Amino acid sequence: MKKIDIIFLVISFVIGAISFAASNNVFFPIGTILVFELYYFVIARKIIKKYLSKVNTIHCCYHFINSFIITLSVKESLDDAYESGIRLENKEFNEETSNLESMPIYDRVVYLRKYFNLAVYKMFVNVLDLYQDQGGNILNISDALMRETTRTEKALADSVSTGEKHLFEFIILWSLTFLILIFLRFGISEFYMTMLTSPLFMALLIFFFVLILASIHIFLIRFSNITIKEDSGV
Amino acid sequence: MKRLKEKIIKLGLSYKKEMVFFLLGNLVIISLIVVPFIFKNLILFIPVVIFVIMFNFVFFYRYKVVEAKQKEDTLRDFVYIFNFFRIYIRNGYSVYSALKEVKSFANDYLNEMLETLLNEMDEDKSITPFIKFARKLNDLVIEEMMISIYQMIDDGNNSSYLNQFELIFDKYSSLMQESELRSKDRKLAMMSYAPLIGSGCLIIMVTIGVISVIGEMINGL
Hints:
heterodimer; A: 234 residues; mainly alpha; 10 helices; B: 221 residues; elongated
């Protein structure tokens, strides 16, 4: 079980506990936890996994391209450039590259197109082809490409930090809303219990928890939206 | 009706599926018309009418959203593609061969546009194909970029025209990047309303509770 799974498990249990306190009913928290867990394992987990993998791939890709080009310009050797490009502490990327050891260097670089699946990497391979065909200074040939990788890396970093800032806000605001609910439950306990007998009150309570789930889902979709062009495969 | 059909097809949606969804949706909502008769309360007609209006509004408004999203995607793709175009030009490709090369990076819509541009360039050596290409994207800056690309052909990749193109392109690209970031920021900031709606919901719950308790007390008296 990964860290993120445990975090969501804790979140759903906390929300379950709050729902128990708010409803004073054993079935309500069971339903809440089940729905939240089901949502996480069926939908949210895939979105988070895809997002993390994309961010990771983009970082690896830009590190690889930059290191490769700079080393190639200094040592003028594809082997050294490739070794420098893959020198990155990233488990997934290291596993991928260790499987390619039997292949010639150029084929490995081309093969990584499948792994990165980014248009900028495809362009990098095209630039490398151009360098091999025409020769010249790799730094001049790939100048615009390197500027593009830097620009995109910066855009990604900005996007991630914006997302994190709003995630913090989102958590704080929902925590305050839960505090209001807990205050209502325990601050005006007797009156709250009387209100619980009203079906309309129960309906609104259910709506409240549905709203939490819906807002988490929409937030996740917006948070994980990264617009980096993928390799069209041609 | 013909215009609607053309619009749906242009957006890459299936006209048949859309019409089935539209009719079924309306049918389901209109079937709610029996509710007022069951409860013998004609006021219940009002929510049914509101539902019908809302469904139809959302159904047709959706096309505008899809259209805007497609335009945004195409412009973003344009920036990517022409960034690569710049790389090819910097590496000595002619405008024609650079455009041909970047075609493989484009999405279907832009690919088709580039194909048309290349075909028209074969037949018409004037600036017209470039202007036509830019007009399809409906953006003045893109028109400026296409003019500078045309000037590159005319002057054999003259570096001053390349610089002119790069200057306009870099500005446009930064603007797009900023606007994308702003859009994400705005969308995520809007999510702060969800906990506020939750708090509002709690206030309504308490209000309803207070009113019902007062009501019971009055009735009890």
